[in-house]
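W.,

You were right to be curious about this one. When I first looked at the sequence I had no strong expectations either way, so I just let the prediction run and decided to look at it fresh. Below is the sequence, 113 residues in total, followed by the output.
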Amino acid sequence: MIYRNNIFLSVSFIGLISLGLVMVTSSSIYIADNLTGNPFYFATRQALFIGIGILVFTIFISLPSSFLEKTDWLFLLISILLLVALLIHWFQVVRVMGHSLDPRLGLIDPMSC
């Protein structure tokens, strides 16, 4: 069932996605052309991820709110685990690329890039 709040959420969601796709396309068209020979390589990948995101968005917006309120802790736990996995992967990439980490800040040293 479509509610009024869902329509506002959907319109703003689609507007932000469209703006993001335009930004990715305009900022990466020359880089993608130099790297792959296809000027819309990154735009195509972004469009694929947008499609996956819209599919997940559609599934979650059709779920009843009571179910989401009962399982909010599970989604929070999954989000935290995914962020930790991303952080572990980032540390491995930094180590492989030979960049140094600033032990005081825990950030990548900008002068080593």
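Here's what jumped out at me. The CA atoms of residues 11 and 17 lie 10 Å apart. And, maybe more interesting for your project: The helical segments are 4-36, 41-62, 65-70, 72-97.

Coffee later to discuss?

I.
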